């Protein structure tokens, strides 16, 4: 990174990455516990796991800065297991780092191994031995999305912390800060859509907000005094998620129109809005959740929609799956009607 790279052209996820533990939103019990470990001088090997954008990397980096301050560079080794998957690279880097004596600083060195669940099983086994070998003067912090992809022997050497999807209040608090700093304005409708669409992932929320700003301020003058207004439509557009109104239009058509009109409506909205069926499915499931259905019809449609989602993920034909989607929703209505006769 060069010094010319000002905060202005950094992605917001980096620009607003918490630099201290107090700036981490949510995850309070985790932060409290690891702070306590540090204060008591009893830092174990750590494992942080959980979905993306919940603060795993930010938390360990902030903790490391808090522990080492200006000595950070000498005392902390950051490795990304998904960049250099080969265990040899990891082993050598760790060996070199862990075995050099610290002349000025005391205490443990810290090795952060990000995205460790991308490592092969062989590599994880080797890592376990490395951890054992260097436990005398190093501590490891392993970061992963899925604990179940890690070798049990590796797991058993670490104290585990689960990073849950962030609560809406945590996402809101951070987004509000950024909105003020970036000279944006947003109404409550747009804000709550943004929070909902973030799905507990702060990275997603920040990226969408930044995309919204980029979409509006492309050519406009930057020294205008008026804040840039972010609307709900922009949020949906930037995230590539279907607008609830479009989902409802398709849903109504499926319920009330004949087959060919329904499929035309769906195809047309998909084309105009640039949506894929996979984007629509979640919207349908949500609408169906609020819809009066008997349990037989509900189970049927949800099960079938899940199968369609799976089929798409396996490369199933989009048009065939669209017809199938309309089919199962119509079928659910027939089951429902049959029961009420
Ligand atoms: N708990 C949090 N509090 C504040 N910001 C967060 C939090 N979690 C994530 N972020 C923001 O999202 C970005 C990505 O977070 P990161 O810590 O890399 O997530 P993870 O490692 O869990 O995928 C960070 O740069 C930061 O801007
Ligand atoms: Mg991370």
Automatic annotation (TrEMBL):
Signal peptide: none annotated. InterPro entries: AAA+_ATPase (IPR003593), ATPase_AAA_core (IPR003959), DNA_pol3_clamp-load_cplx_C (IPR008921), DNA_Rep/Repair_Clamp_Loader (IPR050238), P-loop_NTPase (IPR027417), Rep_factorC_C (IPR013748). It is found in: Nucleus. GO terms for cellular component: Ctf18 RFC-like complex; DNA replication factor C complex; Elg1 RFC-like complex; Rad17 RFC-like complex. GO terms for molecular function: ATP binding; ATP hydrolysis activity; DNA binding; DNA clamp loader activity. Gene3D superfamilies: 1.10.8.60, 1.20.272.10, P-loop containing nucleotide triphosphate hydrolases. SUPFAM superfamilies: P-loop containing nucleoside triphosphate hydrolases, post-AAA+ oligomerization domain-like. It holds the Pfam family AAA. Residues 42-169 form the AAA+ ATPase domain. It comes from the Eukaryota. Its main location: nucleus. NCBIfam families: PRK00440.1. Belongs to the activator 1 small subunits family. This is AAA+ ATPase domain-containing protein. It comes from Wickerhamomyces pijperi (Yeast).
